Amino acid sequence: MLKLQHTRSEFCIKGGVITRRGALFFIFMGILSILFAQEDVTVNGVTLITKVFPEGEKACAVVIEYPVEIDGQKLSPDQFSVKVKTSDTYSSRTITKVYANDNGDPSFSIFNNRGKYVVLELSPEDFHSNTIVFGPSFLNTRMELDYIVSQLVPIFDVNGNKVEPFTSKQTDEKHLIIDDFLAFTFKDPETGVEIPYRLFVPKDVNPDRKYPLVVFLHGAGERGTDNYLQVAGNRGAVVWAQPRYQVVHPCFVLAPQCPPNSSWSTLFTDRENPFNPEKPLLAVIKIIRKLLDEYNIDEKRVYITGLSMGGYGTWSAIMNFPELFAAAIPICGGGDVSKVERIKDIPIWVFHAEDDPVVPVENSRVLVKKLAEIGGKVRYTEYEKGFMEKHGWDPHGSWIPAYESQEVIEWLFEQSR
């Protein structure tokens, strides 16, 4: 006889037959197992988070939405796996931090490490963190992002219940700051040129107050019609919309996108005089004037900045429409020296790297020299040879340290016509 012990009763299995007492025990245990069984948990969604770093947009986090509150204090990076499709294979991303919260934002709080959202922060140093591919003919493309996220082992909710492993593809994307920009398209009635553009509108706009406008002209690589690359390729547009700057300097930000077969100036069409405005730039001027009519923008505080092809565009804009701008930050561009008298009274801060392999540094030097000679309001920052590479940046990318400088931000908002 095999005797099985229970808390209050004993029962027998004789010849394969369960006694009445034993049958009641199994029924009781079955009911308990139904009442206390942990249901399988299916996640509600997996959102990929991107952010524009100084070098451009990167995938920086994954947010998993669970149907139950997760105890974040018991989470660790080795419990998860994040892979991104590269060519025909999947490559691993490095998880640097894991925590839980109740809003799905990539922000950690030691005081509230629990919630239905689990955030997996990813290393921006990963080789496959970038979202943009630098293509030929100075035309870049944004990759179609394909991520797979796995929870490798059981984790626990706030009640101590197990949440079983899963594997899922991303179900959504969120783009920090970029998503705060509105998307529009402007068609010039005179030329027929269509310009996609993004517009950032400051939060809680006071109708009795006027706000500055910052215009950003992108480089040749971000030309296109997707109305995205010009705000994702670098921080030239999003830097002004950062919450920490908007708190102190709320402003509108305009980021137009140049068509793929054109330029802001005659840079690609007239080698003898590459500094005249092209149709897309003329359309941008019309967009600025349109915004001045539609929003409470301070016409005395319209600023413009641009890099590379956009640096040429910035010089062209202020030289041909000096009455419109209160200050300018042209970066690694070039302009018409014969027109510097027109911009003598515009505060200008010029940036260039001495060893820029794409746009000759002499372009900026000659303009700065001429402006200084006639008493212009010009400042010049030239990064010495080797400076950019020492920091891991391409020597052409002098906009990276320029836009990361808080002094530059503060200087711009001090200017007014």
Automatic annotation (TrEMBL):
From the Swiss-Prot or TrEMBL record, give the protein name.
Phospholipase/Carboxylesterase
Alphabetical list of Pfam families matching this protein: EstA_Ig_like, Peptidase_S9
What InterPro entries does this protein map onto?
AB_hydrolase_fold, EstA_Ig-like_N, Peptidase_S9_cat, Plant_Biomass_Hydrol_Est
- Keyword annotations: Membrane, Signal, Transmembrane, Transmembrane helix
UniProt KW Ubl conjugation keyword = no
List, in alphabetical order, the GO biological process terms annotated in this UniProt record. Answer: proteolysis
- The membrane-spanning stretches of this chain are 21-38
Residues in Esterase Ig-like N-terminal domain copies = 46-163
Domain Peptidase S9 prolyl oligopeptidase catalytic per the UniProt entry, residue ranges: 284-346
Q: Which SUPFAM superfamilies does its entry note? A: alpha/beta-Hydrolases
Q: Does the keyword rRNA processing apply?
A: no
Q: Name one GO molecular function term.
A: serine-type peptidase activity
